Every structure is written in C-alpha cells, then in structure tokens.
C-alpha cells in the first residue's frame, strides 16, 4: 500500500480520527503528504449560480477565474469597472454582453436584481456602500477583505445581513487553505493537548511592501485602511480561528521607520526614471522591479502584445505612483507592526508583520501542553512531548483537481467553491468565513490600531 492510500485508510482527512504519535511512528515514516476531502456539505447543483463582479482588478479576476475553470458551477454575467482596459478584458474573458457592463458599481443597482450573487472586489474604501445596497436588493455577497474601513460600517453590514437573511462570505481565504485546515483539525482533536500560546509571523517581503504599501493602492491608511486590516486581517483571523476562543484584550506597537523622506539617499530623485544616481544600487528601484524583472506588472494593465511591454512599463513608471521614489511618497503605513492578544482561558498570541524580509509566506508556532507545532504553509511539524517523536504533514493543494494555481495555499478557489455551494443551496453553514464568523478578527484589527496610536491595552468587545 502506498503512503497516500495508507494515510487515507488511517483517517487523516478532515473529520478523520487523529491517530497517536506512537502509531504514526510505527509506520516507519515521519513525513506525510495529504489532501483534504471535499466539504461533506456539498451537494449536486442543478445549474451554475450567476454573479456580477464589482471591481475587475487582481482579486476580482482571481475569483472570476473560478467561473472560467468551472463554468458548470458559476457564471459571471456582469461587471462594473471604471478602467476601460480591465472592463474590456474581464468582459471578453466571461463573454459578458454590453448591456451588463458598467463603469461604476452604482449603475449595477439601477437595474432590478439580475443575478444571484455579487462579488465585491472594489478598493477597500468602496466596500461598504455597494455591500449595503446589494444586501437591500436581495443579493448574496462574496466580499473581499477587509469588510469595511471602520468598525461601525462592519457592524452595519453584519446587522443588515442578519436582517435580510442574505449570505455574506468574507474572503478570509486562509481558512480554506489545506495547510491551515489541517492545523485547526489537529489542534481541535488534541494533537498537542491544550493550546497555551501562539506565535504567528507574516513576512511581507521588502519589494512587496514597496509595491503595495509604499507606492501602491494601500500606501495611505486614511484613504484606504490601516495595514493591520489591509494586509493582516487574514492573520488575525487565522490566529482566532485556530485558537477557537473569544479574544479579550490586545496591545500593538509599530510605525513607519524606513520609507521616509529623511532616509532618501543622496543623489536620488522624485522618480526612478528622473536620472536617479543610485537607481542601479537601490533595492527598491522601480525600473529593476517592473521593467527588468517584469515583476508585479498586473497593476500596470499591459497590452496583449508583449513586444510593447517594455515601452508601456517605462511610460507607466514616468506617469504613475509605481515609478516614484519609495522615500518620497505620501505613505503612512507602518513597515513593522507587532501585536499581542489575550484570549479566553488565558491563551495568548503574538503576531508580527515585517516588511524587511527577503522572503514571504506565513510562519506559525503553536505551543500546547502535550506538544507543539511549527509550520511555514509548506509543511507542518508536530512534536509530541511524551514520546519526543516528530511528524511532518505536507499539504498537497495541487492534488485537489483544478486548484493547482489557486492562491493562498489553494484557499482562493476552495473559498469560491464553498460560496457557490452556499448560494446554490442557500446554506451559509457550508462556509467557515461568513460575516458572523469573520467580524471578531476585524474588531481585533481596529482595536490593535487604536492601541498602536494611543499606547494602551484595548479591550475587545463583541
């Protein structure tokens, strides 16, 4: 019997019995690849659900691609997007008729309801109004995180969702990633005894920080959302989800230390394209990042003709924020951020978000009374204190048909698949990230930002 069949026979999938460390050791192996079985609440569908996408940027495209891969489950029949290039591309991908193409989200709701669901992937500050309007018109909603920029707006959406009985799935995609699903499963079944504390680390990676939170759409917290929500509400949520206890208090520290005008090197200029004397040496050179490496260029809306990419990239660097010096932006997002949380039953957690790393990918340590876990999203190592045996679990997201290229460890498409099922059968229990489940981690984020600014320990009240 091969390893995969053996593990399957021993019940290591979701809901399976967790066999003891001693039994695992007796198998003669210590590394186990695994997949997660299909959600047992899934049922056959008579027809695909229909959806309208508000915001055809990166995240809207990711969720829309599910419909391309699985047309028997979801069909995108409308789009609202003000940028012509993105609107045209999205409409072509999904064969959307001209009558169902809009340049603003408001125009979608000028018509009577004409789909079952709305995908909201607009900028953060544009989540609240379309979500409230969609709920009032009877749409179910797939809502990109964060829910909304303020605590009051989040609570308003929750209240209206409960009043209307509509489904609001928050895109906390890590809850659907096989790696974190397995972590939660093992913890809930006592693999390391009682959870005592958690340490969670999100290395943003230095060029990602420069791209998204210095030059990019989220560079100004007042115009969008604080970085603890814009980038790391995933992380607060996954810590809360894994611990599975109410949060009580939170304290946070951090600031913008490096990406400031006073740190601009001598010889640097307003733009990397303005004859900057240190551009070739700068780790944040826009020319090196976008033109030379062709990295993160989706935001530049490049034409289909690749022969023109170089010319278009340089034009974008001369005219958009993506070509500006990282030391001369109007950015205010902290480039390092730490927070500590007290949960019920005296469980503690520490979370650190760091910009200045050469790598990305979340790292987590969970300390329990009978063992511990150490993982980096590619593998999860569990050590039993009683036997001193260690076993490594390796998520095989690519073994889930169709999800090989799904982001966030396979979580993106697995979320949409659950959302489609929830809408088709009007059963929010199929989802693990309904707004009711996701709201607490947002409150944690708002209170963390209050703590960081005021220098106080903040209570978390639900």
Automatic annotation (TrEMBL):
Residues 54-171 form the Gfo/Idh/MocA-like oxidoreductase N-terminal domain. Coiled coil: none annotated. InterPro entries: Gfo/Idh/MocA-like_OxRdtase_C, Gfo/Idh/MocA-like_OxRdtase_N, Gfo/Idh/MocA_Oxidoreductases, NAD(P)-bd_dom_sf. It holds the Pfam family GFO_IDH_MocA_C. Residues 184-456 form the Gfo/Idh/MocA-like oxidoreductase C-terminal domain. This is Gfo/Idh/MocA family protein. It comes from Christiangramia antarctica.
